[in-house]
């Protein structure tokens, strides 16, 4: 049996010690800022950055984070995360369960490419800074390695859009910040080098929302896994909107195919047991 006699109050209160929020009777602080000051002077995007990164963002960071969160908010009901939430809400679950259902399908394949691309860009920039080669050459080698093992380069190409409409406006914001000296631009150069290396192999494969978002997050110093978390936070807005819309339609138990359509059956032909009765 574990002896608990030496567990004191200090050990107990340290169990969930946090640097994020301080709570006391009549007091709430986010990273040291009283909530009443945040309400008066801050916006939601700045609060996200403060809570996850520890300090309020400068204007460049705030503008870029705001833009990338807007760009990632939704991609229509054909996106598995959205469809999953819409189907869930027709089964009688609450709005929170429907949103959770959508969020829970955001995995490595659907929702993870941004994290993977941040990691790739960060690696290329780090290796270039350590003198392993020029960024263009390192990017070309990386593309060749992905192709050799038959893998997609994360953040590039889109199954639906020949050119992702979110690419250019976000890219322009990053380029403007780099030109003004507010960002270093290394992740931007790495992303464009990957895009050029893909195009050099015979067909243009422009960066998608995951790729341009990864450039933004890498330029802002966001770790790869946190970048995925921020994408999930953004996409939760679309998931919520679609789940709420579906809940207002009144249809119950809405499956993946509209009636009277049924999924094709490709198993064994009908077989009988016993005398068939």
List the helices and strands in order: HEEEHHHHHHHHHHH
Sequence of strands across the biggest β-sheet: 1-2-3
- Secondary structure: number of strands: 3
SS-based class: mainly alpha
Helix content: 40-55%
Alpha plus pi helix count: 12
Number of domains: 2
Shape estimate: globular
Under CATH at level 1, the class of the largest domain stands as Mainly Alpha
| Share of β-strand residues | under 5%
Whole-number average pLDDT?
A: 94
User: Which consecutive residue ranges, at least 5 long each, have pLDDT under 50?
Assistant: none
Distance between the termini: 61 Å
Using only C-alpha atoms, the radius of gyration works out to 24 Å
By CATH, the topology of the largest domain is Cytochrome p450-Terp, domain 2
Largest sheet geometry: 3 strands, antiparallel
Question: What do we call the CATH homologous superfamily of the largest domain?
Answer: Cytochrome P450-Terp, domain 2
Q: Which architecture name of the largest domain does CATH use?
A: Orthogonal Bundle
Task: Please tell me about this protein's structure.
With 277 residues, the chain is mainly α. It has 2 domains: 19-57, no CATH class; 58-255, Cytochrome P450-Terp, domain 2 (Cytochrome p450-Terp, domain 2). It has 12 helices and 3 strands; from the N terminus they run αβββααααααααααα. The chain has helices at residues 9-13, 35-41, 44-53, 59-71, 80-89, 95-103, 113-129, 135-148, 167-179, 186-199, 209-219, 224-249; strands spanning 21-24, 27-30, 33-34. Helix 4 (59-71) crosses helix 12 (224-249), helix 7 packs across helix 10 and helix 9 (167-179) runs parallel beside helix 11 (209-219).
């Amino acid at each position: 049996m574990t002896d608990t006699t030496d567990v004191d109050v200090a050990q107990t209160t340290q169990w969930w010690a946090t640097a994020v929020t301080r709570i006391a009777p009549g007091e709430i602080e986010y990273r040291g800022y009283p909530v009443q000051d945040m309400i008066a002077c801050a916006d939601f995007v700045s609060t996200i950055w403060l809570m996850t990164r520890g300090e309020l963002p400068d204007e460049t960071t705030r503008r870029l984070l705001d833009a990338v969160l807007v760009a990632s908010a939704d991609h229509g009901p054909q996106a598995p995360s959205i469809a999953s939430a819409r189907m869930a809400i027709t089964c009688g679950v609450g709005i929170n369960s429907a949103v959770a259902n959508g969020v829970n399908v955001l995995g490595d394949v659907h929702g993870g490419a941004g994290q993977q691309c941040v990691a790739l860009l960060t690696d290329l920039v780090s290796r270039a800074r350590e003198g392993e080669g020029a960024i263009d050459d390192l990017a070309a080698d990386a593309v060749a390695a992905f192709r050799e093992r038959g893998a997609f380069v994360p953040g590039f190409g889109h199954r639906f859009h020949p050119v992702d409409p979110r690419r250019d406006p976000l890219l322009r914001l990053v380029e403007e910040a780099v030109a003004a000296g507010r960002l270093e631009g290394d992740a931007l150069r790495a992303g464009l080098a990957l895009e050029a290396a893909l195009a050099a192999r015979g067909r243009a494969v422009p960066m998608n929302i995951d790729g341009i978002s990864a450039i933004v997050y890498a330029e802002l110093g966001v770790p790869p896994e946190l970048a995925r978390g921020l994408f999930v936070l953004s996409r939760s807005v679309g998931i919520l909107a679609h789940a709420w819309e579906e809940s207002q339609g009144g249809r119950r138990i809405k499956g993946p195919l509209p009636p009277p359509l049924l999924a094709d059956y490709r198993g064994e032909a009908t077989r009988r047991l016993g005398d068939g009765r």
